[in-house]
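User: Let's play a game. I give you a shape written as C-alpha cells, and you guess the letters that built it. Ready? Here's round one.
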C-alpha cells in the first residue's frame, strides 16, 4: 500500500511540475517571443522533423548541434523544441555554453504549436 501511495505521489508531483512549467513557458511569453521574431529550433532527427513540425522552424538535431551551432546567429532568439522536452533542454544548455544568451526551452513541439495556434486564434 505504501508503494502505491508513493507512486501516486510521484505522479502527482510530476503533473504539478508540468503544469507550472506549462504556465511559465508555453502559456506565458513564448508566443510573444515568436511574434517578436524568435526562431523555433527543432532538435529532433530529420526523420522525426519530416513527420511533422512547426511551420517556419529550423531543424538541427541534438546529435549534430555541437558541430552545426555555427549555422545559428548568437544574437538572435531561439526556442528549442523536441518530442517531449528532454532534448530541447540539452540543446538549450549546449547553446548557452557556446555563448548564446537568448535561448528558451519550448518543450514538446506539438504543445508549443497548439499554444501558438490558440494564441493566434484568440487574436483574430
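Assistant: Ready! My guess for every position:
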Amino acid at each position: 500500500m505504501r508503494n502505491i501511495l508513493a507512486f501516486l505521489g510521484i505522479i502527482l508531483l510530476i503533473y504539478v511540475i508540468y503544469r507550472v512549467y506549462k504556465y511559465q513557458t508555453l502559456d506565458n511569453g513564448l508566443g510573444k517571443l515568436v511574434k517578436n521574431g524568435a526562431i523555433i529550433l527543432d532538435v529532433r532527427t530529420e526523420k522525426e522533423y519530416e513527420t511533422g513540425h512547426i511551420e517556419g522552424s529550423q531543424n538541427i538535431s541534438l546529435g549534430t548541434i555541437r558541430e552545426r551551432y555555427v549555422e545559428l546567429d548568437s544574437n538572435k532568439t531561439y526556442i528549442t523544441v523536441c518530442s517531449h522536452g528532454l532534448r530541447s533542454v540539452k540543446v538549450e544548455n549546449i547553446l548557452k555554453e557556446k555563448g548564446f544568451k537568448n535561448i528558451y526551452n519550448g518543450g514538446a513541439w506539438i504543445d508549443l504549436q497548439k499554444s501558438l495556434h490558440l494564441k493566434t486564434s484568440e487574436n483574430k
